[in-house]
Design a protein that fits this description.
mainly beta, Immunoglobulin-like, four-stranded antiparallel sheet, Ig-like_dom, Ig-like_fold
Length: 145
């Protein structure tokens, strides 16, 4: 059977089953590699029980096979989405499975000013609050004059 399974992205090996954070709109390439095994393993990507790709590249000289999952544009629904890499070279044994979740930065969906429901007057104090929602991590709000 295959001995090792490793998932990596453009930044290197994935640790603790979650990618480093990617910006909304960025592209992401995940590579799942299997080493050893005779014959070399078939490698496939799954999400929620559905096959995404089972296109496997074989490198016999290095005793390795791999499959690449490319997401051209990350969207909000990819946040913490779990993708599974399955590695198998025999129907007699269950596949080796490695799961990876996608971490993301999300820009704010909305910024709103509160407290402007009356006319402003010179020399009179008015409190205005800026509320922001939909960002991850929470947005840093600053005021400029």
């Amino acid at each position: 059977p295959p001995q090792g399974v490793q998932v990596s992205d453009d930044r290197g090996p994935i640790k603790n089953g979650i990618t480093t954070a990617y910006a909304e709109g960025a592209s992401l390439t995940l590579t799942c590699s299997a080493t050893s095994g005779k014959p070399l393993a078939r490698v496939s990507w799954w999400k929620g029980g559905e096959l995404i790709t089972n296109e496997t590249q074989y490198f016999p000289e290095r005793k390795r096979s791999q499959s690449i999952l490319k997401i051209d544009k990350l969207i909000r629904s990819h946040l913490l989405a779990v993708f599974s890499c399955e590695v198998s070279n025999s129907q007699l044994q269950p596949p080796l499975v490695v799961r990876v979740a996608i971490d993301m930065y999300l820009r704010p969906l909305e910024a709103r000013l509160q407290g402007l429901n009356h006319p402003l007057s010179a020399g009179r104090r008015t409190d205005i609050t800026c509320k922001c929602k939909g960002s991850r991590p929470p947005a840093v709000i600053s005021w400029w004059k």
